[in-house]
Amino acid sequence: MNLVIATNNKSKVREIKKIITPKNFKILSLADLKIYSEVKETGNTARANARLKAVSASKKTGYWSMADDTALVIKSLNGKPGIYAARWAGENFPIEKLADYTLEKMSAVPTSNRQAYFESTICVCSPHLKCHYFIGRVSGNIATAKKGRPKKQMPYDLIFTPSGSTKTFAEMSEQQKNLLSHRAIALKKAAKYLNYVANTRTEQQK
């Protein structure tokens, strides 16, 4: 069976492939299928946006699909940017400058009040457009300066330090990040479901 990751974000696809290997599923990206357009995230929640992307991918391909949407909730900014993390500075604002924009917004916030959390919602959609949802959350703090190596289309990794660590996500190796990130938590839940699907289908074919 084929599983399409409904994104053209290469960093995200690589991260997903390193975290999960669902039984009897071949993981494909939209680019693998020569689909380069992406669905506009017009939903008011991460769940709605994840569903929009997953359903669109399954409709276009006839395959199982997976999509995620992530919110970054910062306490001192009254929950902003939330699900608008990629565009809260404006639709055409360079994504690689979002960490700097966020730090500027928090320049007067003391270290004792920089709590935040990442929450990923994953939608797994069947070829018949039946959807299941999986959530992963990791709490932490927003650093006072960028730290680590920038990753394309993952600007907040430079400034988010998960609880229990002294490193930002960007300072960690991929293996370290994948042990505790919000996306990894949600992905492992999704993989468990997909393995159940594969096992059920195997049993039915016996």
Q: How would you characterize this protein structure?
A:
The protein has 206 residues and is of the alpha/beta class. Helix content is 32%, strand content 23%. It is built from 5 helices and 7 strands. The chain has helices at 10-19, 46-61, 98-105, 174-180, 182-205; strands at 2-5, 26-29, 64-74, 81-82, 115-125, 131-142, 160-162. The longest helix is centred in the C-terminal third of the chain and has 24 residues, at 182-205.
- Indicate the radius of gyration in whole angstroms: 17 Å
Q: The biggest beta sheet, please?
A: 7 strands, mixed
What name does CATH use for the topology?
A: Maf protein
Count of DSSP helices? 5
Span between N and C termini?
A: 17 Å
**Secondary-structure class:** alpha/beta
CATH architecture classification name:
Alpha-Beta Complex
Structure at a glance:
The chain is built from five helices and seven strands, in the order βαβαββαβββαα. It is α/β, with parallel strands linked by helices and 206 residues long.
Fold topology:
Layout: E1 2-5, H1 10-19, E2 26-29, H2 46-61, E3 64-74, E4 81-82, H3 98-105, E5 115-125, E6 131-142, E7 160-162, H4 174-180, H5 182-205
Helix pairs in contact: 4-5
